[in-house]
Write a structure and sequence with these properties.
19% strand; five-stranded antiparallel beta sheet; Rossmann fold; seven-stranded parallel beta sheet; 37% helix; 298 residues; alpha/beta
């Protein structure tokens, strides 16, 4: 991997563009409830597992998007019905705040543990999160990427859609104007107080118990570690969910712009479009299963 700095953002890049041919086939399915979305996402995972032999590498989605699926998995993991599936899973997280203690209640890892339950983590083949309590964040991020690649790359990338100013959007924490391109597999991005406020309020609204020490440490974080466009485009399948437009109404114009943007046929112009509105990276992937609620379209 090469390292590249763009406007203060550090990107780890590959040597060639990862934009697939025959992209921009984005469609979505409207379901009636968050539970229905969670069940549909889980069924996609099961269906993929039935199509493929051997181990499966998945990247988890933080926030509200996949919580219904996680609750369903946690319930099933208490029994033995899905044990054969769980035993094949190599599980990874997609972003993290740094520096931060790994046991901070505002870490995505702690939220995954709360939602998926101990049985899930006992039964999966492996679980790997980005290390945020190290003196060399870049080195640990390189090791993280190398582990994903040593397992054959990402099979399923679970994604949401985050709202940004001017009806733009972000995927993972790839933000508008961060200089990310299709070669970038991961990045280290300076963090803003606005994002920290959103992160803390999201965790509190989701039911996480947050003490003063954890919140103070979280608000002192300086960077976000994130997977990049090359990781998204290189995944074999993307499963997306957008279920919280009622509590995050800015997602409505962001999703509208995502769907209605006319994508350029020129790769350089396409990358410029995605830098302005990173949600568009998902439209370049040839195998996306997107599930939304009706309120996203209202």
């Amino acid at each position: 991997m090469n390292r590249r700095v763009a406007d203060g953002n550090l990107w780890l890049e590959r040597s060639e563009s990862a934009i697939p041919a025959n992209s921009d086939k984005y469609t979505y399915t409207v379901l009636e409830s968050e539970d229905a979305v969670g069940e549909a996402m889980f069924n996609e995972l099961v269906g993929y597992a039935n199509e493929k032999a051997g181990d499966i590498v998945i990247v988890l989605l933080g926030g509200r998007g996949a919580q219904a699926m996680y609750r369903l998995i946690a319930e099933l993991a208490e029994g033995s019905e899905i044990d054969p599936l769980l035993s094949r899973l190599h599980v990874f997280t997609q972003d993290a705040l740094a520096p931060m203690r790994m046991d901070n209640s505002l870490s995505f890892v702690r939220d995954f543990e709360r939602l998926l339950g101990p049985k899930f983590f006992e039964k999966v083949k492996s679980f790997t999160s980005m290390q945020t309590d190290t003196e060399d964040i870049e080195l640990e991020l390189v090791r993280y990427i190398e582990k994903i690649e040593s397992l054959g790359g990402i099979d399923i990338f679970f994604l949401g859609l985050g709202p940004e100013a001017n009806a733009a959007s972000h995927l993972c924490y790839i933000q508008p104007g961060s200089g990310a391109c299709s070669k970038d597999i991961a990045g280290i991005i300076p963090i803003s107080p606005t994002i920290l406020d959103h992160h803390v309020s999201k965790f509190k609204a989701g039911g996480s118990h947050v003490d003063e020490r954890d919140e103070a440490e979280c608000r002192s974080a300086t960077h976000i570690l994130t997977l990049g466009p090359a990781a998204i485009l290189g995944a074999k399948r993307i499963i997306q969910s957008v279920v919280d437009a009622s509590t995050a109404p800015a997602k409505k114009p962001s999703f509208k712009r995502l769907v209605e943007t006319e994508m350029s046929n020129d790769n350089d112009k396409l990358e410029a479009q995605a830098d302005e509105n990173p949600g568009l990276w998902i439209r370049m992937h040839p195998d996306v299963r997107s599930f939304i609620l009706p309120d996203l379209l209202s």
